[in-house]
């Protein structure tokens, strides 16, 4: 029987109640990781937990609102008390925000998309950095989008938030690469059949797109201890 690729690793996945996060959490658990699954939607997390446990995996649910930094800090403290380390962080949670001309974008929409897509990931790194450093091979993976560079009209909030995320992760990667075993990278999945994609393109046939489960292998590869790239964007 072959060794599971993430056997014994502790992995935190945000936005795990559906879509890419759900699929990644399931795959990580099937590869032997103890998954810490976070999201605001408790029902989705409970379904994930049922599926992981039915398949013989291990999952801990942590329903939190990533817009609230104090909840992220509390989660970090709980992880420290229970495990003393974190091997894998997947910053997947994201929101679309409003699609409109820059001059018409509601400030509340701007604040919301920046809070979830950018600021929350800064707070995760701030709270979990010491736990990643305590791992023998801490791996941080964040989900970005080609829209951070394509800069299409009406996508200002989403594009800006992903551009900010990319800069944040690349700076963090540069800070830790030479002095720790932590490696931080971004993954750009391309068009995937998710709820966020359906909201942005309501007339699109989702059956023409890859499913989240189709791309989880890349996440596993990036989470492995032997994956030594850092500060890069891995495009699918």
Record keyword descriptors for this entry.
8 helices, 236 residues, single chain
Beta-strand residue fraction: 5-15%
| Global geometry | globular
Major beta-sheet overview:
7 strands, parallel
Q: Can you give the mean pLDDT?
A: 97
CATH class: Alpha Beta
For the biggest β-sheet, the strand order reads 3-2-1-4-5-6-7
Helix content: 40-55%
Topology pattern, helix = H, strand = E: EHEHEHEHEHHEHHE
List the domain count as a whole number.
Answer: 1
Your description of this structure?
The protein has helices at 19-30, 42-54, 69-82, 107-134, 147-150, 156-176, 195-200, 216-223; strands at 10-13, 34-39, 58-63, 88-91, 139-143, 183-188, 233-235. It is α/β, with parallel strands linked by helices. It has one domain: Rossmann fold (3-Layer(aba) Sandwich), CATH 3.40.50.720. Strands 3-2-1-4-5-6-7 form a seven-stranded parallel beta sheet, with helices on both faces. The longest helix has 28 residues, at 107-134. The two termini are 30 Å apart. 43% of the residues are buried.
Secondary-structure map with pairings?
Layout: E1 10-13, H1 19-30, E2 34-39, H2 42-54, E3 58-63, H3 69-82, E4 88-91, H4 107-134, E5 139-143, H5 147-150, H6 156-176, E6 183-188, H7 195-200, H8 216-223, E7 233-235
Helix pairs in contact: 1-2, 1-8, 3-4, 4-6
In short, what is this structure?
Helix content is 45%, strand content 14%. The chain is of the alpha/beta class and 236 residues long.
